[in-house]
Amino acid sequence: xxxxxxxxxxxxxxxxxxxxxxxxxxxxxxxxxxxxxxxxxxxxxxxxxxxxxxxxxxxxxxxxxxxxxxxxxxxxxxxxxxxxxxxxxxxxxxxxxxxxxxxxxxxxxxxxxxxxxxxxxxxxxxxxxxxxxxxxxxxxxxxxxxxxxxxxxxxxxxxxxxxxxxxxxxxxxxxxxxxxxxxxxxxxxxxxxxxxxxxxxxxxxxxxxxxxxxxxxxxxxxxxxxxxxxxxxxxxxxxxxxxxxxxxxxxxxxxxxxxxxxxxxxxxxxxxxxxxxxxxxxxxxxxxxxxxxxxxxxxxxxxxxxxxxxxxxxxxxxxxxxxxxxxxxxxxxxxxxxxxxxxxxxxxxxxxxxxxxxxxxxxxxxxxxxxxxxxxxxxxxxxxxxxxxxxxxxxxxxx
Amino acid sequence: xxxxxxxxxxxxxxxxxxxxxxxxxxxxxxxxxxxxxxxxxxxxxxxxxxxxxxxxxxxxxxxxxxxxxxxxxxxxxxxxxxxxxxxxxxxxxxxxxxxxxxxxxxxxxxxxxxxxxxxxxxxxxxxxxxxxxxxxxxxxxxxxxxxxxxxxxxxxxxxxxxxxxxxxxxxxxxxxxxxxxxxxxxxxxxxxxxxxxxxxxxxxxxxxxxxxxxxxxxxxxxxxxxxxxxxxxxxxxxxxxxxxxxxxxxxxxxxxxxxxxxxxxxxxxxxxxxxxxxxxxxxxxxxxxxxxxxxxxxxxxxxxxxxxxxxxxxxxxxxxxxxxxx
Lengths: 399, 326
Known about the structure:
The complex is a heterodimer.
Chain A: E1 6-11, H1 12-23, E2 27-30, H2 37-48, E3 55-58, H3 62-74, E4 80-83, H4 85-100, E5 106-111, H5 125-129, E6 136-139, H6 143-157, E7 166-171, E8 179-184, H7 187-194, E9 211-212, H8 221-233, H9 235-250, E10 257-260, E11 267-271, H10 274-288, E12 293-298, E13 300-302, H11 306-312, E14 318-323, H12 333-341, E15 348-353, H13 363-372, E16 381-382, H14 387-396
Helix pairs in contact in A: 1-2, 1-6, 3-4, 10-13, 11-12
Chain B: H1 4-13, H2 29-38, E1 44-48, H3 52-57, E2 69-70, H4 77-93, E3 103-109, H5 110-115, H6 118-127, E4 132-137, E5 163-164, E6 167-168, H7 177-182, E7 188-193, H8 197-208, E8 214-219, H9 223-226, H10 233-242, E9 249-252, E10 255-258, H11 269-272, H12 287-317
Parallel strand pairs in B: 1-2, 1-3, 3-4, 4-8, 7-8
Antiparallel strand pairs in B: 5-6, 7-9, 9-10
Helix pairs in contact in B: 2-8, 4-6
């Protein structure tokens, strides 16, 4: 049931900027990079027009953006930022510190390929680079989800049992630059939803001074790292609570691990991001033809929801895992996680890598994946890879 | 300006930086920190770049800091200060914190300031954040074992610019970070030294009162890295000033003012000969480099003097903006 909702035509970046405007964070340090830029451009205009009172810091690099963000969040300011690709790679040193110092920064990531070669288009290499940092990682399927997850993120990051930074991924261009009808909440509803930013301590409290970021020796480092792991373990329960509250507010009930057509499926695809949306269309079409296929969409990648995934895939016999990133020299990241989660289960797995650097993936590619699942499984497959060009390159540069 | 009694009273009333840390005997950094923090009248919040000072004062779960203190990494202390100062303004704006002054102070070594932290420093100075950046300059990467930095003087021997049978130490002139800070058109930039505590204290107090970024480059000392007895640190830093190697001056809204005029400037050898890092320069084959170093000092002093003379009329028109002469 939609309550006081209005539909607006927005790109994912515009929808994310609307969410930031409604949240009205205290501080937003940011550095421009494609395809994140429309988020900060739209938001800067909101601030210039008096529609938000946020202090934007136009820093000189993403490294400084994350540094300022962590400091501001620990000073007691609700803090958000946005980046993509090389920007995330540059700031990753401080991305680790955000989690370690328990700074609940929210960051929109317009997911984009990493150099080299340089490429501005969608894939998940940037997010996967940060998968071991201790951040919560969410992925949107479309512009509506970019908006909704941006509203969920501060509540999750500031959840007293969690207190961790949260990254909201949205596929570059496919989501950030594609306009779709988006249902927005009222400003007052969002203000009530996010509430006041509360930390039990602040670097600005000069009466109660705290030392933040000390030097840890072998006698304490291990425990301080383990504390982050424990906080991440509390995320699924916090998300259950928050998604139920958000469903009551917005009428949109989110499952962070969503089964689509899995009830009686014998074959399934596991996917993240906009491709999960395309897969839903393919599942619908194939099921109309009587094929028992389904989709498992992960909106939560960190902490990895292994238990929910095992339960959702318990009755499926063959699963294709679609990775939009590689872990060069090893199994692709999502496939590695799914394999570990299903270790010991009879489910058979097939790895696919697709869409690197914005290479399009079409419905017929996904139909092909489902068809191939009926055949004997094998080593990693690469959707749309022009192998003759790879072979040519190899003959030019014999190793 | 705060006198010695005031500084001592403040240190007693509210110990902003306490003993018990593990900095070396003869280290100049705690002198910089105590003098600067006790000279600032408002509450302070400190950001520390990675380095000796950070490592030796915050071994978990202990701390030497009686004020809010933040360390993130090596190269981003000025960016972290930007975040704190902006949060302070944002929270004051919406009435979430009392409207009381706080001075944001960054302490970084020369490695974290001249080299790896230069970009973040430049960005924060250009954006005009209201903060005081203090470089405690001991002229090399001391925490990692005395490697050359952009602040290491010409011909000094370090573990990565060693003197040897065929080499005389660092080949390059040190970077003029004070001039780089001045080029950002910030309201206050100064050079000070731990040997002249009253001058340092005055500069810290004045820097903290600016309505914008301020930068202090303070010649600290490192007995281990410079190669002298721990008890001699202050005396050797004083010789850097008396030889005109390290002029004590300040730049107010772009105008140069000299705070100390050595009456009988000493030859550079008086400073060099007290430190093992320059020992090799006194071998016959390296004598030409001694001359080169003296020529560098002379030329820098002449340039500075010319600027100071040119700005004398401006200070005559604005006497209240001139710092004390010590």
